[in-house]
Amino acid sequence: MGKPVSIIGNCFPGHKLPHSIHPWFCKGIDHEICFLKVDEHVRCEKWMRDDNVDSKESKTASWFKRFIGREQKPEVTWPFPFVEGGLFILTLRAGVDGYNITVGGRHVTSFPYRPGFTLEDATGLAIKGDVDVHSVFATSLPSSHPSFSPQRVLEMSEKWKAHPLPKSPLQLFIGILSATNHFAERMAVRKTWMQSSVIKSSNVVARFVVALNPRKEVNAVLKREAAYFGDIVILPFMDRYELVVLKTIAICEFGVQNVSAAYIMKCDDDTFVRVDTVLKEIDRTPPNKSLYMGNLNLLHRPLRNGKWAVTFEVCKFNAFVGILI
């Protein structure tokens, strides 16, 4: 008996679906690629499989741990979303990064667009297999996060523009990690803590650090945003979570080579920075001393699976001597 699996793919116009480009297989099991995000959704949700027997512990032991001495709550999983002879409602939503599929209102799987894809390339939808389609409903009602609609959140006003980079050295450079399509998050930062008086005085400079998106139209909007507000550094590579370290390096290089900052800070676009508090801590530091603000984890065990996985090529040891967070 076959194992339950959902297969999704896309193809170029003129080709049939079986010849799709890199089809995505969702098998409902833990796999490191399943934790990669598409529009803030995991690529594949986990579901219960009758054919999957945990070799590490018996079902009796598993249930025993649920009630005695288990620190974490039991993981919640759902059955395979399709049942023979059963009705279901499937929703296919086109997001910024890819397609998101829900069944019965519950997210099942997401898969990214192929490089260079635009929604205008989508000319049809094909559903294969032993499925009887009772009805199809298509809509374009706005139901997405504000970041997916930059024209609704970007306020093209002079008061939100950044000052030009100062020619003299400055005290602090703040690099803000941001995703290509986080238009709403960047606008919120511009209207809140980036209005700090010390940033306005050019003693502190803040810039968003953003990589490219696989969708050309998203990059086009990003470039217009960067040209207008003057506060975005666009890096020449596709944005992927495992390349976040390159963004960190870019922040350090910009802070040294472009603005000659005495101190460099990194944060995310969902962080509210108390710039005055950071500067007070800097001012308390003697000139002959270095300053690090953050967390230091000693003997941290590297994760081998999931979103924060560290490969054996990067670290072959079972524990880091120390890691800065």
Detailed description of the structure:
The chain has 325 residues and is of the alpha/beta class. The chain folds into 3 domains: 6-144, no CATH class; 150-289; 294-325, no CATH class. The chain is built from 7 helices and 15 strands. β8 (98-103) and β9 form a beta hairpin. The longest helix has 14 residues, at 216-229. The protein starts with 5 loop residues before the first strand and ends with a strand. The relative contact order is 0.11. InterPro entries: ConA-like_dom_sf, Galectin_CRD, Glyco_trans_31. Residues 1-139 form the Galectin domain.
Mean pLDDT: 78
Percent range for β-strand residues: 15-25%
| Helical content band | 10-25%
The tally of strands reads 15
| Radius of gyration, taken over Cα atoms and rounded to an integer in Å | 24 Å
Shape: globular
Structural class: alpha/beta
Give a topology summary.
Layout: E1 6-10, E2 21-26, E3 37-38, E4 41-42, E5 47-48, H1 59-67, E6 78-79, E7 90-94, E8 98-103, E9 106-112, H2 150-153, E10 170-177, H3 183-191, H4 197-200, E11 204-212, H5 216-229, E12 232-238, H6 244-257, E13 261-268, H7 275-283, E14 296-298, E15 322-324
Parallel strand pairs: 5-6, 10-11, 10-13, 11-12
Antiparallel strand pairs: 1-2, 3-4, 7-8, 8-9, 14-15
Protein name: Hexosyltransferase
Family: Belongs to the glycosyltransferase 31 family.
Membrane topology: Single-pass type II membrane protein
